[in-house]
Every structure is written in structure tokens, then in C-alpha cells.
Design a protein that fits this description.
This protein is mainly alpha-helical. The chain has three helices and two strands, in the order βααβα.
């Protein structure tokens, strides 16, 4: 897996409204992604709580960024892959869940 700095340069603009709509539509999926990426050494309850926090904080990043950019989807046939808002919040959840020292 390539580090985020090596992702393809192709980007699509995303505003906070698109990110919010994607968060509402895909919230359960984003929480599951966060839960699965958090360390298993932490108790189940704490991982669930942290996964919800990751999903919710992904929207805060979109509001701060204003008109942020996200990579275009690599697999357009997959569900949600064509929605740049979902790609943005998913990337934020992944980034935060994989950050060093997260719930260690």
C-alpha cells in the first residue's frame, strides 16, 4: 500500500456539503471501517466509541478545508466509489484510524 503522499495526482473538488451528505448516507460503513482498523488490543467498547469519533471527525476536516480535494476513485464500478464526498470522508477515517499512537 502506498503512503498518502504517493497517491495519484488526479483530484476532484469536494465541498463540506458533499462530505456531510456522504457521511449521513454512509455513516455505518465508515464506522465499521474505523472499527476494523483500530488496534484489537483495546476493549470492544472503546473501539466502538473511537470508530464513531473517527467518522464524526472526518466531517470536521471537510468544514475546515472548505473546498478540499480528494483522489478520484480507482474502481468506478464499486458502490460509493463515484461519490467524491464519500471518498473524502472515507480517506479521513482511514488516515485517522491508521495514525500512529491511535488508542495504542
Amino acid at each position: 500500500m502506498r503512503p498518502p503522499s504517493e497517491l495519484p495526482p488526479a483530484v476532484a473538488p469536494v465541498d463540506a456539503e458533499q462530505a456531510e451528505a456522504a457521511l449521513v448516507e454512509h455513516y455505518p460503513r465508515l464506522v465499521r471501517i474505523g472499527y476494523l482498523l483500530l488496534p484489537p488490543s483495546v476493549s470492544r467498547g472503546r473501539r466502538v466509541f473511537a470508530a464513531h469519533a473517527l467518522a464524526q471527525r472526518s466531517l470536521q476536516a471537510a468544514h475546515r478545508a472548505g473546498a478540499a480535494t480528494v483522489p478520484l476513485p480507482r474502481y468506478p464500478g464499486r458502490t460509493g466509489a463515484t461519490d467524491p464526498g464519500y471518498a473524502y470522508v472515507r480517506r479521513q477515517v482511514l488516515r485517522r484510524a491508521l495514525a500512529p499512537g491511535r488508542l495504542g
